[in-house]
Design goal:
A: 500 residues; nine-stranded mixed beta sheet; three-stranded antiparallel beta sheet; B: 754 residues; alpha+beta; 23 helices
Chain lengths: 500, 754
């Protein structure tokens, strides 16, 4: 390819990437492109005050059935005995006396129970998230999962109602929960799509991108024009996390100049442009991260603890970075518990509970606990029916799952969710499996049904409530662009009041 | 999609071209020209407006009388292309037709049909293009004026032309280099040159660009001796040599530490305070991945069987296990032996051996799956990741859709359940009589899994059903009254199930595309995938799954070969391990003091681990990066970009900085890195001294690292930085060499293998 052609593509933007690369050269991370400019009201100005959304992702498919458990004896809905009947024989049931009780006003004050590792634990640095329930800072949204449209069991069994593609497959369900689109493969995540529309209004002079991942590249964080800041956890300080080394020896200054210049050449190849663009982002953010302050709260020295600590450091630096709205992604893995689930969950639950609590406490110290909302997602729930038995007992891939939402803005201390599309049900899945009479929440419909709950709240609905709180414009065009299937779920905001 | 077959009328030419392009002969003394001609999109004589007319217009189209016209979105338009040398059955899916609008957004319009109008390379091919974007990254383009279009084929991009969408005109910017390419004058603008005949005395491989590119695709990096050999014997003879080369390299045998108990004994628990370990490194050498990592890295840096190691590395990223769950290095060794032994063997054998491999059985739980407590993990991933994938594919690797445009699933949960049943009952081989490698007190990770007959599901199973499937239904066992009968039934069932998967139409395109992505380019054309998939289906002797033939087809394909690739969407990001070994091998990698070979443990340094691809430590069964990862900001497949973030991009630069400028010293306190790793720039230092303008230095590196593709801007930027260092001392000549190496190695231009 000759020079002029290369030059041309560089200037005009060979494709989306070319354009992003071009925009990056303008050194304005907040104002990106003609596309983003057009998508927003040009007269808009930043909202007052700071807000952040933090997605804590349970990677591998967390078994929510052992996280939020009925802890009552009410015979009219599934109770502890219903739970124990399905899990105790193989040794997967959490003993009732270990459950941490939570009272649920929306279910007439019935008591449910959290997994014991969500309270104080041996060697912990705090009391965990359980006590935030009573303080009204922690809520649970039940039976959330991927859906294209609401489904009853009969509709699920029929081929004429569209279902999410490749249910029970990790990669596809991760993709769907991060793109909030279960109808078709999407190239952008909903976190990125929010930033596409808000970054130039809310963070017009932001020194880092609106979206930050402490867990590498994630579909959630990428929009059409948004690329995330992706950095390592708190083991590396903000000053060092993007710091290219070695420009201090002989020729170093000239080397740095060339290093930066070379990234502006040969952008006609889209792979080259993509790599250069990412490095550009890193180099610009690095300059802004050289000064920072340590947080006050003690965080556990676990991966998820260090990730949330790094998030807290960035939030503490929000004014410096000129960011008014931020989206963060953190992740804890290891939930694919086909085997040895009991010990694995005990460890992982205490890790994220400890980390979440430290994070909440730090937000209180920073005075932004009402402005920062942490929420969870996962690939899927796991089968109510255990896999294996005894010491190595685990569970397989399933569907609808329970999610935590934490923060001062949350209407906490309650279960949220939707009833079945036909109006029946009780916010919490009925613990019956297969073709048993009344097993209306299990997608399986035969004698060996394993308990895969058909979600009553879609990921799209759950996320749309979070996005609305965050400040996503609620006009139809924006909503359908960010959550393309939301229109299939009428009444979302009236049913899911976990955030204002 | 409607597809026609076209044959050249000049039979003699066809024959020659077929031989040249398919390159079927491995014993050829000389290699054919690897370069395909660059396609030319015909335009009007006085402008760059593409010659085009609505498809299906009645009567004969006179290319000299076509008038500028606008085309409706969604309609199909005929355009005209020349300077092509097509394989006999090469169809429209070998081409990709791109359009750019005024906003700089790119769309891709599918080429739905093609017809050869006149014969020969200078002949004209009519292509029918549907004006409906298939990338779906943006909304459909606005129909408000000209778009800029070009065509790609075999990694080569055509000239730019204009096409009226909705209306003619508008203010689309055009590259100043774009010139009209009218009918009849095309020979004059054939930028690629048409004739590259071999001189009679030439033996071996003359096209240096292609040779360097080939080395990137087949080895862990350029190395001068390897290049010399390749130059002498040619690609095909070299491939034949590699297929038969001993593996592992005799001086680097597999590290076969004895198996140890699952609970580390006191003399091997890494704790020297109470009971010292015997030997002191017992824990490291048993219960960590250290031995196989070190072995693997040394083999990559110095091994003589580079291609097998490279293909095994690719297969290890398809059939993934991980030291995050696998306890002992020896467990991983037994798994790796299956990958390497079958890298040039048959995929069906690989499937069987891996299914019963205890390491895989441990990692994906098949070793714990019984009829009463089945575990779906292996059955699901066997289909999803290791063989047929989630959606029905055609031979081109394209996802098939139903009437509503939704992808057709390959299988449903029911098939997962049934395959799970077939694979119940196998566990670790712990019976002395049946397990020759059993060591008392340890779990047997050497012998294949052994059936416990009482744990096998004897009910009927229904597996994958597809056109031509023959082993879909496995009947319930009718005579399972003895252990011997159950064993026979179980083994037969497992073989039937594996046949059922192996013969599925998805397997050839699914695996072929993955291997192309690992070796050559991230987003191959559908036609390339199909050419390889056809070889996967039949190696020419009626054998399905012959990986040797598949690897050869991938590497000798015209889309893989050629001195330079100009398609903006061609190439792949070097994954971290390749990136590191490619750089190290290019500069005579040695031990820290240069006196001997490196210990290979560069992968233990934080600058390497920060790039997030530690060998044998994939985070999950989905590998370090997913094969369908799309480069953010595009619809372009780029799996390795899942590892290219703001954080890792700087780690990459810091890795280069560490090994180019400050070779890490060997610390006595760290027995895990006994020899260290350093690079040798003495030859480059001499060049820097011989030519103080820096030109020779940069030219040499341009050849060695970028096979001559470095742009003038990039070269000038490097030269400026090089001559900034005063040419006053030996130390500074070395610093000049390092300066240039650093800048090339950290550039995106080098990080992308093209």
């Amino acid at each position: 390819m000759d020079e002029t052609r290369r030059e041309f593509i560089k200037k005009s933007g060979g494709c989306a990437l070319g354009m992003v690369a071009l925009a990056t050269q303008m050194h304005h991370l907040g104002s990106v492109s003609a596309f983003a400019q057009k998508a927003i009201d040009e007269s808009a100005s930043p909202s007052v005050g700071y807000k952040a959304l933090v997605l804590l992702y349970w990677s591998g498919g967390n078994d929510g059935n052992n996280m939020v458990i009925p802890n009552h004896d009410d015979g009219t809905i599934s109770n502890y005995a219903s739970y124990a009947a399905l899990r105790q024989p193989q040794g997967l049931a959490i003993p009732r006396d270990q459950l941490l009780p939570i009272s649920v006003p929306r279910l007439g004050g019935l008591t449910y129970g959290l997994h014991p590792s969500l309270g104080p634990v041996t060697g912990g640095v705090n009391n965990g998230i359980h006590e935030l329930w009573a303080q009204g800072k922690l809520g649970i949204v039940t039976n959330v999962g991927t859906l294209v449209r609401p489904l009853t069991k009969a509709q699920y069994q029929s081929s004429s109602f569209q279902k999410p593609y490749q249910l029970y497959s990790h990669s596809d369900q991760v993709t769907q929960s991060q793109t909030a689109n279960s109808a078709t493969q999407a190239f952008t995540g909903w976190g990125g799509r929010i930033a596409d529309r808000l970054a130039s209004v809310e963070n017009p002079s932001g020194l880092i991108p609106m979206v930050t991942s402490i867990a590498g590249a994630q579909l959630f964080t990428s929009g059409q024009v948004t690329l995330p800041l992706a950095i390592a956890d708190s083991n590396t300080t903000p000053a060092n996390v993007l710091n290219p080394l070695g420009f201090t020896n002989t020729g170093g200054s000239a080397r740095l100049t060339a290093f930066n210049n070379i990234r502006t050449y040969d952008l006609s190849n889209n792979y080259i442009a993509a790599a250069s663009h990412v490095t550009d982002l890193a180099m610009q953010a690095n300059t802004s991260l050289q000064t920072w302050q340590e947080v006050t709260a003690t965080f556990p020295n676990t991966s998820i603890g260090r990730q949330l600590k790094q998030v807290a450091r960035l939030i503490k630096k929000r004014t410096d970075l000129s960011v008014n709205r931020q989206v963060f992604y953190v992740q804890i893995g290891g939930f694919d518990t086909h085997t040895t689930q009991l010990t694995t969950q005990t460890t992982l639950f205490s890790q994220f509970s400890q980390a979440m609590r430290s994070f909440y406490d730090e937000m209180v110290v920073q005075g932004v606990s009402n402005d920062v909302t942490l929420f969870t997602l996962s690939d899927f729930n796991r089968t109510m029916n255990p896999a294996g038995t005894g010491a190595t007992v685990g569970s397989d891939h399933a569907w609808g799952n329970h999610m935590f939402v934490m923060g001062g803005a949350v209407n906490g201390g309650n279960l949220y969710g939707s009833l079945r599309p036909d109006g029946s049900g009780n916010y919490y899945p009925t613990l019956l499996m297969g073709n048993t009479t009344g097993a209306l929440d299990d997608a399986d419909n035969n004698s060996s049904g394993r308990g895969r709950w058909i979600p009553t709240t879609s990921v799209d609905q759950y996320c749309a409530v979070l996005a609305r709180w965050f400040g996503l414009p609620q006009d139809q065009q924006t909503l359908s662009a960010v959550f393309p299937n939301l229109g299939n779920f009428p009444g979302t905001f009236s049913q899911l009041g976990f955030l204002p | 999609m409607h597809r026609k077959e076209y044959w050249l009328t000049a039979r003699g030419l066809t024959l020659i071209l077929t031989l040249v392009m398919m390159a079927v002969s491995a014993i050829a003394q000389e290699d054919p020209d690897p370069n395909s001609p660059t396609p030319i999109l015909l335009t009007e004589s006085s402008s760059i407006r593409a010659l085009a007319n609505r498809s299906g217009e009645k009567g004969r189209v006179d290319l000299n009388r076509l008038r500028p016209q606008a085309f409706a979105p969604g309609s199909t338009v005929d355009i005209y292309v020349t300077n092509l040398v097509l394989l006999p059955d090469e169809g429209p899916l070998a081409f990709r037709f791109y359009a750019m609008d005024r906003e700089g957004r790119t769309y891709r319009f599918p080429v739905v049909d093609m017809e050869r109008l006149t014969k020969g390379q200078t002949g004209v091919v009519r292509m029918s293009v549907a004006l409906t974007d298939e990338l779906k990254y943006w909304d459909q383009p606005a129909a408000d004026g000209d778009v800029l279009v070009y065509l790609t084929w075999r990694g080569l991009a055509s000239n730019f032309a204009k096409l009226g969408l909705g209306s003619v005109g508008g203010d689309i910017r055009t590259p100043s280099s774009a010139v009209p390419a009218p009918l009849g004058t095309v020979a004059a603008i054939d930028r690629n040159g048409t004739s590259r005949s071999l001189s009679p005395e030439y033996v071996g491989y003359r096209w240096s660009g292609d040779r360097y590119r080939f080395l990137q695709q087949t080895t862990f990096g350029f190395e001068p001796n390897l290049d010399s050999r390749l130059r002498r014997i040619g690609l095909r003879a070299w491939l034949a040599e590699q297929f038969d080369a001993p593996y592992p390299t005799p001086s680097n045998p597999y590290p076969n530490q004895p198996l140890k108990p699952a609970n580390a004994p006191a003399d091997c628990d890494g704790d020297q305070t109470v009971t010292p370990d015997v030997p002191e490194t017992c824990f490291r050498d048993t219960y960590t991945m250290y031995p196989i990592q070190r072995w693997n890295n040394v083999e990559a840096l110095y091994g003589s069987s580079q291609l097998r190691h490279r293909v095994a590395w690719a297969l290890s990223q398809i059939w993934v296990t991980s030291g995050n769950d696998i306890q002992q290095s020896r467990h991983m060794v037994e798994y790796h032996k299956i990958l390497s032994a079958n890298a040039f063997g048959n995929y069906r054998t690989l499937m069987r051996q891996m299914t019963f491999n205890p390491t895989m059985g441990d990692y994906l739980d098949m070793a714990r799956s019984t009829k009463n407590n089945p575990n779906e993990n292996y059955a699901r991933e066997l289909m999803q990741l290791f063989s047929v994938g989630l959606f029905m594919l055609n031979d081109y690797g394209q996802v098939l859709t139903d009437g509503s445009g939704n992808p057709i699933p390959t299988y449903d949960q029911n098939v997962v359940n049934n395959l799970t049943k077939v694979l119940t009952g196998w566990s670790f081989c712990q019976t002395a009589a049946s397990c020759p490698n059993l060591t008392v007190g340890t779990v047997n990770f050497i012998d294949p899994l052994l059936l416990t007959t009482g744990n096998h599901d004897l009910t009927a199973k229904t597996l994958l059903s597809y056109t031509g499937s023959t082993t879909t239904n496995i009947a319930a066992c009718s005579n399972c009254t003895s252990a011997a009968n159950i064993t026979t039934y179980a083994n037969n069932s497992a073989e039937q199930a594996l046949d059922n998967i192996f013969n599925h139409p998805n397997l050839p395109p699914f695996i072929s595309k993955l291997l192309i992505q690992h070796l050559v380019t991230s987003d191959p054309s559908p036609e390339y995938v199909r050419r390889v998939a056809l070889v996967f289906k039949n190696n020419g002797s009626g054998v399905r799954g012959d990986l040797k033939a598949v690897v050869k087809a991938i590497l000798l394909d015209p889309e893989a070969r050629g001195d330079v690739k100009t398609d903006p969407n061609y190439g792949k990001l070097r994954e971290p391990f390749q990136y590191a070994t490619n750089i190290l091998r290019t500069f005579n990698v040695r031990s820290a003091d240069g006196s001997t070979l490196s210990d290979g443990m560069f992968t233990a340094r934080s600058e390497f681990t920060g790039m997030q691809q530690i060998p044998f430590r994939s985070p999950t069964v989905f590998n370090y990066y997913p094969p369908d990862y799309v480069v953010p900001g595009s619809a372009l497949l780029g799996p390795e970009y899942a590892l290219m973030t703001t954080g890792t991009s700087i780690q990459r630069a810091n890795f280069v900085n560490r090994f180019v400028f400050t070779a890490p010293a060997v610390a006595v306190s760290n027995p895990d890195v006994p020899l260290g790793t350093s690079l040798d720039f003495s030859d480059l230092q001499a060049l820097a001294q011989a030519d103080t303008t820096g030109n020779q230095l940069v030219n040499e590196l341009n050849q060695r690292m970028m096979y001559g593709t470095m742009s003038t801007e990039m070269k000038n930027a490097i030269l400026t930085a090089v001559v900034n260092i005063p040419a006053t001392s030996t130390a500074n000549y070395l610093q000049r060499a390092r300066q240039a190496v650093y800048l090339i190695a950290t550039s995106s231009q080098y990080q992308v293998q093209r």
